[in-house]
Amino acid sequence: MKILITGGAGYIGSHTLIELSNAGYKFVVFDNLSNSSKKSIKRVEKIIKTPIFFEEGDVRDKKALNKVFKKYKIDSVIHFAGLKSVSESVQNPLEYYDNNIVGTLKLLEVMKKNNCKKLVFSSSATVYNEVDAQNYTPLKENFPTGVTTNPYGRTKYFIEEILKDLCLSDLKFKIAILRYFNPVGAHESGTIGEDPNGIPNNLMPYISQTAVGKREFLSVFGGDYLTHDGTGVRDYIHVVDLANAHVKALNYLNSKNKQTANPLIVNIGTGVGYSVIDMIKAFEKVSGKKVPYKIVQRRLGDISTCYSDSSYAKEVLNWESKKTIDDMCADSWKWQSNNPNGYSKNK
Ligand code: NAD
Ligand code: WQD
Fold first, then answer.
1. Does residue 152 carry a catalytic annotation?
2. Which among 299, 307, 329 is the best mutation to test ligand 2's pocket, defined by most ligand atoms within 8 Å of the CB?
3. Of 30, 221, 284, 291, which has the most beta carbons under 10 Å away?
4. Is the CB of 82 within 6 Å of ligand 1?
5. Is the CB of 80 under 6 A from ligand 1?
6. What sign does the CA torsion over 71, 66, 152, 200 have?
7. Is 215 left (phi over 0), alpha (psi -120 to 50) or beta?
8. Contacts of 181 (CB under 8 A, 6+ apart)
């Protein structure tokens, strides 16, 4: 019996493979490599000192998925596969709805057909109503969702709703929806990490690419927010802590005999907010590198402050973050400085 890890070659997936292996779980990775490299799998194999079952394929391809379910006797799924760029989703919403929503529907159909009814799903803090995130931090799981600002966020919201309907229709489904806040950092080996294509949209890869000399300076989007230093505040979570939350979620689903008509929905964050300037300062301290920056206009669609109430994760999953802001920055730097071009030699 194995766990299917869709999108397991990607940033969060590859880190999760290590924690699953440490916890004794057996798994198969299914990924179309549209935003990742097989090198991540090779490097994880080195870390865990075990070969990994890898199947290249697209979650929208039911035939291919079905074959994998049969071949490996899949009994649970962690579903990372999806597209994740907010700006791309605004430009190309149909691609996002197809990949994320149709992809999830096909996966669920194949799961149901194969009587596989345990699922951990990668959701996002972006599902919370924008207005509430702005005014009512820390965000709790029961806060309203759905008033999102972009197609990417809507795909996550719609999928959450689909999963709720599925649980209602079939009490045998056991589903955990993890709402990630802002994943950053890398494995302490410095051999796997986040490898964005082109110019990074997210803060941490932009900071580390600036520190390594690939970017001239960081544009800080807005210096006039109502925060302690005027820059935006987020809940950054170390990717290894986040990876561990998936192990805890699986343990939870495996130990749960009681039937419920609802998915478990849990925030995965630290519960602490740091500003852009806090992140720059911490990064400079641990890396010994200067991160030149300029404060520019606010980025459209950004909010001032967003961080989690992470107490439910502790209560229900016995999970809490362990890594500090210094760990997040030091590990991002180790990955970036060892691999200035990510997994590709000529980026
Ligand atoms: P990533 O792009 O590094 O990993 C996603 C993986 O899925 C990639 O390896 C990609 O090749 C694969 N993939 C995409 N579409 C596929 C398809 N149709 N079939 C098979 N494989 C496919 O992204 P990540 O940062 O590791 O994110 C993983 C999940 O977590 C995503 O669902 C993302 O939306 C969600 N998430 C990410 C963040 C974040 O900031 N990184 C925050 C919240 C939620
Ligand atoms: C963080 C802070 C920016 C870049 C996004 C998605 C969200 C989730 C995580 C997937 C903000 C500031 C950033 C830069 C900057 N992804 N910033 N200069 O916007 O909180 O969340 O990624 O689910 O859905 O929306 O993350 O890293 O882009 O920004 O000043 O070059 O850094 O304004 O305050 P965000 P981010």
1. yes
2. 299
3. 30
4. yes
5. yes
6. positive
7. beta
8. 125, 234, 235, 236, 237, 267, 268, 269, 270, 306, 307, 308
CB 109 within 8 A of CB 36: no
- What are the average pLDDT values for consecutive 10-residue runs of the chain, which has 347 residues? 95 98 98 97 98 98 98 98 96 98 98 98 94 78 93 98 98 97 98 94 97 96 96 98 98 85 96 98 97 96 93 98 98 96 78
Instruction: Return the pLDDT at 134.
Output: 64
- Separation in Å, CA 274 to CA 269, 277, 280, 282: 12, 8, 10, 10
Is 206 near ligand 2, meaning CB less than 6 Å away?
yes
pTM greater than 0.90: yes
Nearest atom of ligand 1 to the alpha carbon of 81: 7
Q: What is the pLDDT of residue 130?
A: 80
Task: Give the whole-angstrom CA distance, residue 296 versus residue 34.
Answer: 32
Tokens for 270, please give them: 């630290």
